[in-house]
Design a protein that fits this description.
Length: 127
């Protein structure tokens, strides 16, 4: 069981979202694309997004003028352990090709969109 003296109402995990590498030809991670906006991680090996947070996320993306991608992937995210404490959780990221290599590739517009989205989400939880 998770034991912590830290209490949180809302946890937004920010991380990369691994996408397909056209060089390898794999389609295993083909759900998101560079230049198409930040990615909402709907599910991974440790986490299923809380459905009640989805409308808030979509509304925040619209207000921020940010295209939002959604995907399911393997791996884990840092929000997953907080879901068990009763905190509202979301996992977001920027798409990245060639993860864990010397030639990782991102689109800076995706990162900028993610920053706008997180700021708008923070405001929505504050209201």
């Amino acid at each position: 069981a998770l034991r912590s003296s830290v209490k949180a109402d809302v946890v937004i995990a920010i991380d990369t979202y691994v996408i397909a590498d056209p060089v390898s030809g794999t389609q295993r991670y083909a759900q998101a694309h560079l230049g198409s906006g930040p990615v909402f991680r709907a599910m991974d090996d440790s986490y299923v997004a809380q459905p009640e947070e989805h409308p808030r996320l979509l509304a925040a993306a619209k207000r921020a003028g940010v295209k939002l991608q959604e995907g399911v992937t393997s791996g884990h995210n840092d929000a997953s352990v907080w879901a068990y404490t009763g905190a509202r959780t979301l996992a977001l990221g920027w798409p990245m090709r060639s993860a864990h290599s010397m030639v990782e590739v991102i689109d800076m517009d995706d990162v900028a969109g993610l920053a706008k989205l997180v700021a708008e989400l923070a405001r929505s939880y504050h209201d």
